[in-house]
Amino acid sequence: MKVGYQWRGVFAGCVAVALLIGCAADQRWRSAMERGHEALRAGQYTQAEEQFSKARDEAKTIDPKGKRLAESLSQLGEVKRDLGQYAKAESLFQEALAIRESVFGPNHAETASSLTDLGELYRVQRLYTQAEACHQRAREIREKVYGPDHNKTAESLNNIAVIYQDQGRFAEAEPLLQRALGILEKKLGPEHSLTAITRDNLAQLYQAQGQNERAMPLYQRALAIHEKAFGPEHPIVGRNLINLAGTYQAQNQYPQAEVLYQRAARIFKKSLGPDHLEFANALSHLAQLYELQGLYSQAEPLYQQALTIREKQLGAEHPQLAIELNNLASLYQSQNRLDQSEDVYRRALGIFEKSAGQERQGYAKTLKSYASLLRRKQRTGEAERLEERAKSVLKRLSLENQNRGNTAGDLPQLLPIP
To answer: Band of the pLDDT at 76, cuts 50, 70, 90?
Structure first.
């Protein structure tokens, strides 16, 4: 009996030590997560990445297959996604999803969170079929767990609507965004960031349909909310600025648009770095604004810089690179640099034709632009063949959208939030 008590005492001591070690590791994990969130709110992505990586390492010590690790992986994946490191982000999100499905089950709210992470990652890469499947599954889970009028359900509705909006399926997207906005205004308040994001998405929908007078006040309100919530130098503010600048540009208010594009570019360069795709996007928008005004010498270096960033981040065969090449070729065409323009158009078309149907609207636009160049060079037969190909691409895309619309009509009205 005496020996037994001795072993029991040793065992109790070991448990106490283990608990102390576990508590210390848990505290380190919590501190790293808090610092990571603080850095993310400030737009400091390098610091956020470092802290969430530390949190992941601590979580592996505490519970290598548990909730803490899944949460750490998810947050680290978000940073990787925002930095444009899509393959790394997908790996992290998939690992988090596998843990959550194992620990909580396939119909848990935590599982829905991982599906939302993956859905947004696929959307930004224009992988719309995969994105919609993830967001639809997340919505179904959230409706069962929270109910149809919960803010989490509204987030999923918003995310589905954004996918439709990205594909030009505006009639399907608008009622979802309106429903999501109504839920979020009621549950979170009209000044909440998630409410502002949905309001911004609705403004983008109006802008895409040429309804700039409806879009502008929504953009302005979203910008004011995000400046107050995150500060004037956060990337989300930069995205708001890009959107608002677009409405000024569409109404030929070029000086106002220029100021906003330039401010957005400064924000992205400072917060995300000079090689980030968000910075490239801002440069491209600014270049297009200069091109519209005939300021070709100011536009060209910006297009070239944006091209360099996209090729570095995405590779030489990515369809987003082809879209940027089309912009540059159009600039050359406007300057009567026709041979240079043709070379760039050819490169863009070569990328589109290797990209397995991605960015078909961009492909059709490039076909038509190249055809207009060929007409100027008196190569009418070649131009007509390209124009026919562009019509065929757009017709097929329209039919596919109609078919998707018929399927989607049987679904509940829903929405997306990044």
So the answer is: very high
